[in-house]
Amino acid sequence: MTLKVYNSLTNEKEEFKPLEEKTVKMYVCGQTVYDYMHVGHARTYVAFDIVRRYLEFLGYSVETVINITDVNKKINDRAREEDESPWNIAKRFAEINLEDFDDLGIEADAYPKASDYISEMIDLVGKLMSKDLAYEAEGDVFFDVRKFGKYGELSNQDLEDIRPERTDEITSSEKKKNPEDFALWKSQEESEFSPTWKSPWGEGVPGWHIECSTMSLSLLGEQFDIHGGGSDLVFPHHENEIAQTEGATGKKWVNYWMHSGLVQMGEEKMSKSQQNFVSVRELLEEHDPQALRLMIAETHYRNPMKYSDEKIEKAEKTLKSLKNAVRNLKAEINSFEESIPSKMREKDIEFLEQVFNLKKEFLEAMDDDFNTPKALRNLHELSKLAHSYLEENPKRPVLSRALTTILDLGGILGILEEKEKRQLKRGSLMENLMEEILKLRERYRKKGEYEAADSIRNALEEARITIEDTERGPRWKSAE
């Protein structure tokens, strides 16, 4: 089966064919850095990180760009509230959000800041003016929507039906030729909390939409494969991006538009403006980052996702179950002495066939527009299957194949990983600590100091960690 991707521009699943045979270029709209990242934001970035991981699994080299919007009125407003420089506000939250990315295993090749591309933005606005697609009005520059015939295609709207107040932050400007025109450059006087830049049209700031067009053009070129973001960005942001970028280049800009569904708390969209959100930083104080990734993967990326404390708790238990299965497989493999080749039994062959089929079904699910809920079910089945095989006097090469498959598939979803950069927080640190504790307990037992050994077991049980003594040595399991 070949990979099919749902294209928001055509509203159809299409066979994925990158512009370059071995390379995929992807741009994902990043945050405005005036506050903490919440689960709604994380949902988008985890979804597209899974896209990146699967494309890399398929053998593509993926160039991923996630921008940082550090020029915005929201940042200025926060700076004014806290009596602090807007640059300090932006720097602080950009760093915090990148730390959250790191915890969640989200990776990109570049995180460009809007403030580093102001001169390129001014050049792009100038190019649109030279093509008579934009006009200046008393220091502001607007895009003339009626001169771009494809406007409304992405959001599936006729120009006459578009409500002007939705196209732009400047909704009542009498300077506009048409009410639906949107700002490329906005005149503004510099103040302590509002940085500005010089331009041919006077002092001011770039419009929000021109920022992403400029950064993607600068880093990925005039044409690339995937542009992603939340579904709330389809209009006006992505619609306006298409108009100004294709207007400037005269070329089809993006091949596949992909949009993730929004996160809901109850029946409302999770949002800062409604004050109904859970920050990633707050969530990760109590939960494994991979539990959040798993919870996100349980819903198809295009569908709305409901968040609740119960859902993250359930995801945490599911993750622990998967990790315990991996741990048991590793322990069993490590318990074998140097393996002596032996003939494969019928039940070994049957087990490997089942492993192969579940892997095949997992990949088929991912090929179907990144169907992570179905893929995750296949991973669960594989984990259960491997656990059952442990009771069948298993063979080391067969177990190793099953373990490698589970880790490979888990890695596509960004779970069951043991990356060095995340060792200092949870998984690997816990693994290493438990290994040392069990070694200490074994030393006590061998010396006949059973009271000391039992005190270790009792202390672990209080921490909801159980020890099972087997013929091949002790195993530990965290309570589900």
From TrEMBL:
Spans annotated as Disordered: 165-198
Gene3D superfamilies per record: Cysteine-tRNA ligase, C-terminal anti-codon recognition domain, HUPs
GO molecular function: ATP binding; cysteine-tRNA ligase activity; zinc ion binding
Catalytic activity: tRNA(Cys) + L-cysteine + ATP = L-cysteinyl-tRNA(Cys) + AMP + diphosphate
Methyltransferase as UniProt keyword: no
SUPFAM superfamilies reported in the protein's UniProt record: Anticodon-binding domain of a subclass of class I aminoacyl-tRNA synthetases, Nucleotidylyl transferase
A single GO BP: cysteinyl-tRNA aminoacylation
NCBIfam families: cysS (TIGR00435)
Assigned protein family: Belongs to the class-I aminoacyl-tRNA synthetase family.
Name of the protein described by the UniProt record: Cysteine--tRNA ligase
Lineage, opening ranks: Archaea, Methanobacteriati, Methanobacteriota, candidate division MSBL1
